[in-house]
Amino acid sequence: MQKKILEFANLLRKSGIRVSVAEALDAFAALDELSLDEREVFRDALRSSMVKRSEDIESYDQLFDLFWSGFYDNLRESFGAAAQGLSGQLDLEALLRAVQEGMANLDPGEVDLSELARALLTQDLSQLEKLIREAAEAAGVSRIENLLQIGFFSRRIMERMNAEGAGQELRDLAARLQAAGMSQAEAEALQGLIERLMEALRKAVRNLTERELQKQNFDYMERFRRETLIEKSFYHLTEEEVRQMREVVSRLAQRIKNILSIRRRRLQKGKLDLHQTLRRNMARGGVPFELSFKQRKKDRPKLVILCDVSSSVANVSRFMLQFVYSLQEAFTKIRSFVFVAELGEVTPVFRDNDISDAIDKALDGGDVINVYTRSNFGYAFHSFWQNFLSAVDKRTTVLVLGDARNNYNDPRAWCLRDVHHKAKNLVWLNPESPGAWGFGDSVMDKYLPYCDVAEECRNLRQLSKVVDRLVL
Amino acid sequence: MFESIDNVQSRLRECGYVCGKNISTVVFLAERLEKPVLVEGPAGVGKTELAKVVATATGRDLIRLQCYEGLDEAKALYEWEYSKQLLYTQILKEKFSEAMAGTRTLREAADRIGSEDNIFFSERFIVPRPLLRAITAKKPTLLLVDEVDKSDPEFEAFLLEVLSDFQVSVPEVGTFTAAHRPLVFLTSNDAREMTDALKRRCLHLYIDFPSEEEERRILDVKIPGIEQRLADELVGVMQRLRKLDLKKTPSISETLDWARALLALHATELDDGLVRDTLNVILKYEGDIRKAQSELGRLIVRKAEEKRPEPAAGAAPPAAPAPPKKGTLH
Hints:
The structure holds two protein chains of two kinds.
Chain A: H1 2-14, H2 21-32, H3 39-50, H4 57-67, H5 71-84, H6 92-105, H7 115-122, H8 125-138, H9 149-160, H10 163-179, H11 184-231, H12 239-244, H13 246-266, E1 269-272, H14 274-280, E2 293-295, E3 302-308, H15 314-330, E4 334-339, E5 343-345, H16 347-352, H17 355-363, H18 377-387, E6 396-401, H19 413-422, E7 425-430, H20 444-447, E8 453-456, H21 460-469
Parallel strand pairs in A: 3-4, 3-6, 6-7, 7-8
Antiparallel strand pairs in A: 1-2, 4-5
Helix pairs in contact in A: 2-3, 5-11, 7-10, 8-9, 9-11, 10-11, 13-15, 13-21, 15-17, 18-19
Chain B: H1 5-14, H2 21-33, E1 37-40, H3 47-58, E2 61-66, H4 73-76, E3 78-80, H5 82-91, H6 93-100, H7 106-116, E4 126-128, H8 130-136, E5 141-146, H9 153-165, E6 167-170, E7 174-177, E8 183-188, H10 196-201, E9 203-206, H11 212-222, H12 228-243, H13 252-264, H14 272-282, H15 286-294, H16 296-299
Parallel strand pairs in B: 1-8, 1-9, 2-5, 5-8
Antiparallel strand pairs in B: 3-4, 6-7
């Protein structure tokens, strides 16, 4: 059992669930306290000691079913079917009794059945499971990688446990029993039973191999799915994938907020506040046991976001707007703008609508801005400079999300320069890699001098890296 | 001590808490293995309630530590009671002079005070906070660390130390070791992920929204007066509401609130108007309410329509007087 649990823990680890050695030990301890006749209890006990993140519970449940599979159930099913197939009025018990009696009459030297043959004949399922598993291990079934190998490994397992040999032994036995005076009907029934048992064995082995393949592939599929979402460039996201990322994004926004609040708390201790200290210690005759400090003015960061929503970055902007939306939920002092050529404020839209509506509204032509034009960063920055420069002060961080592809328009970098001068920080997240900045119609090089931070931000991994380093 | 998992279930049930096998298994193991339990799940599914009920069912004293940003050791573990110390010095002034009598040099006087200073740093002047209370308690206790995700990471590290061996040392006094290991429940709403170190030391329990059947049983236990049909409909609506994409998904506590509100309105069945008027009991955001209202038709499924019970002459249902006017709740 212990070995099995360690194996299971290994499988969990392979699938990206972190299980420490201590936790596996806890699982042993937990199982010592329980009776294991209920599958559910067993599953919950293992889960509570080995799986500590709620996101992992789903994978755990699937893996649990695969691993503690009902291989035994499957075995029972296929062998049950084999026994059902008895023809005529003979029932299984009577037949087996007849076989027993017949065997007792035979010379003991002649009926030396192998373990497998005996297990088959008596349908000793747990013995069968043990034999099959041993053979599977010897055949190296855990190395299985793809569907095409199922046949190969099944055959190999059958060979390992010498299934054909066992079948032959049983057939010989049947022939000998018949020779020793078993009735015709019984003998035929026995022969039929043996063939069906062999078929059931083949099925069971194949089933085990298939399960093994699923098990080995589970983590692969899972990891593949997760990695693609994290690594996948924003350019290639489908709308559905963007939706899936919603949660991740809001967690990122929350993290930004947490970073900020930690920073704020560290700054809390200021100068000694004499008035407050005296007042607080009046009860102790003015002896200053507890000191009070002047609170530094809370440095609530302000955020102004400019998000490019032109069609060249269509899905990127859908994603980025999600990010903006989540940021807006996390911060109070925040203003969000979208632009293509025109610039429009979406703060109220984002505040009053739920996320998908808000994004649709922002991207829908005409509601906020006309999105069906060619992007013009210069024009957009200029109109920001004209209308909203007052939104920027020395506590404001300006966050620009866009590719800086300006369609050969005038970049008007001086607008950005003024914004940069007024703001505390100017951060530009560009979905293109730095190699492409300044080539073609990209005017990123013109804007670069006025950015405090300019980062490539093409997928979730990069975004979360940027977030980690971001000092707003 | 619980005898078995079923025993956990039935004893919690006696205290008015309906739970499935998953919860009772973890509670059982927590007591057997003496391990803390980290309970996670959406708000309002009964995480805190679980701890309280387990305390009642096992006859332990409940000691609660509510976490918040900025919670520190002084508020969680112990504090010196300065005012009391000061007061004692004032009162004992005369005694001091007596004790000092006969000392000639300052050094001698200071030495003599020094030999007595442990009277001021003794248990007498310690204000125990929840953690120390749980450790020094004479009776077995249950320590509930509520909303541990709201605390700061530094506090989490400190908590870890306490939870690993239930032993606290106060430099001036010495080390306190728990006579009875308290049963510990930590609850978290996932505002931030707890560190692996903490998670490793705990059993993990995730309480999700209940299934329809479970919710129905909870409703029966918690609100005994409710009519079966109303309860069925209500649970149905809640289950369908949870499938909508809402900002704040209503949970069990909202179901119970709603049931109580409907009882107060003497409602016997749900209809569009009633649901519309009372939606603000279960949904807490304007946007959510609007969304739910637009989906109202799909939320209320009239499965009772065809088999409306005839008012039997013998067993007339309690004649609930129809409310004069279905007022809106605020």
